[in-house]
Amino acid sequence: MEAGPVSLTSYWRLIRGNRDFRLLWLAQIVSEIGDWLYSIAIYSLLLELTGSAKAVASAVVLQVLPQFFIAPLAGVVNDRLSRRKVMIFADLVRVVIVLGMLLVRTREMVWLVYVLLLMETFMWGFFEPGRSAIIPNLTSGKQETMVANALSSTTWSINLAIGATLGGFIAVLFGRDAVFLINALTFLASAYFLKRMYVDEPHARAAPPLRAVDLVDFSPVLDGIRYVCADKRLLATLLVKTGLGLLGAHWVILPVLGERTFPIPLEGLSPERAAMLGMSVLMGARGIGALVGPLLGGYWAGHRMPRLRLGILLGFGAVSLGYLGLGVSSTIVAAGATVVLAHAGGSLIWVFSTTLLHFQAEDRFRGRVFSADFGFLVITMATVSYISGTAIDLGVTVQRICLTIGFLAVAPAVLWAAVAMPLWKTSPSTPEADDTNA
User: Fold this and answer.
1) Label partner for 360 (CA 20 to 30 A): which of 89, 274, 309, 369?
2) What are the pLDDT digits (tens) for 390-406?
3) How many whole angstroms separate alpha carbon 34 and alpha carbon 178?
């Protein structure tokens, strides 16, 4: 029987009927809105204190690259311990880290921003794979898992649109300190919701106790590598977000465009605050795009595997067209529209590849699979972000960077179409392969 589309009704049915997923969803809402408020404050602070795009790029690198190095350890921890408890621990540590940002007042204190971002990234590296890996334990069947993934991505997108847009306005009205305090409170709220969640975690029951020596034992990591490499389709799906990492340049591109090309000079605003509003509008457009992608894509694809795979290809096409358009935009309205298109495609890629991984990976390996998934994503993001920031400081225009990203996005699209998609026609059957209409 063919599955129905993922609709707003199915979202409501899941939220209303699944208490434990609802708590995970509420934790996601509060923490992510705080994160996006916080990002605008951090990037505007760095641009104001240093005047350097490379400073923002360095911050992005410290927000993402350490995830690549922590991924093997985080994967093992999430496959040996309760993922719920790992997430709560990460939330509580991040409360302290974020409050440390209140100490940064001068250019000489900028180094502390980088230290704190590094520490926060390590905690995110433990939290996010656990959140992704735990979803199938809270849902029943492919349809509900697909709905949960689409809702999680849609929520992320709404949080981005709200948080990024409000971040600039709150910083303008109340100052950056208010943003840092709000973000710290959101992590406390997230930990509270997770504490109330009940979830069956068979992987933790079956695993032996985690000892300190296990943290430097790489045999579980090697087991995970062998597991992924034994299934070419799983490997191909795991590497999808590596191509999506090209969009990591937007962490540099959008703040710089907002500050230098599209500030919003309202009456009475200083140039710094006009720049923050420009950043907020562009980051909000990114959130709108990321919202539109899963809504339309989920309705079209349902949980039909062939459409999920085709949607990944279409997503890369939208990324390419969007950034090519951003490179020639002359107004903030046009720029916002192209950002919506690009990030609608990026969000579609994220949701569909995550859902495919849920169906392909066994529960006992899922923490390591998602840690690797994020790890390869962030190595690409860190690389393109740092190169972009350095190039801008050397005189390369932001518009040219946008055009380059647009052309580069063609490569993962071609690889997915020419190398990955044919694997489902030639590889032996797996549980995920019975997908003509499933």
Assistant:
1) 89
2) 899 899 999 999 999 99
3) 11
The closest of 255, 234, 247 to 348, measured between CA atoms, is 247
Q: Where are the alpha helices (DSSP H) in 268-396?
A: 271-301, 305-326, 332-360, 363-393
CB 153, CB 351: distance < 8 Å: yes
CA distance 75 to 78: 5
124 Rama sector, left if φ>0, alpha if ψ -120 to 50, beta otherwise: alpha
Average pLDDT value over all residues in the chain: 83
pLDDT digits (tens, 9 = 90+) for 174-222: 878 888 898 899 999 999 999 999 888 887 777 677 766 666 566 776 7
**Window from 170-184, 204-218, 272-286, 345-359 with minimum mean pLDDT:** 204-218
Whole-number Å distance between alpha carbons of 121 and 237 = 24
Measure the CA–CA gap between 406 and 328, rounded to whole angstroms.
11
Report the distance separating Cα 201 and Cα 134, nearest Å.
8
Only one residue has tokens 């760095």, namely 46
> Smallest Cα–Cα separation from 92: which of 189, 209, 207, 197?
189
pTM to 2 decimals? 0.70
The DSSP result for 395-416, as a single string, is: T--HHHHHHHHHHHTHHHHHHI
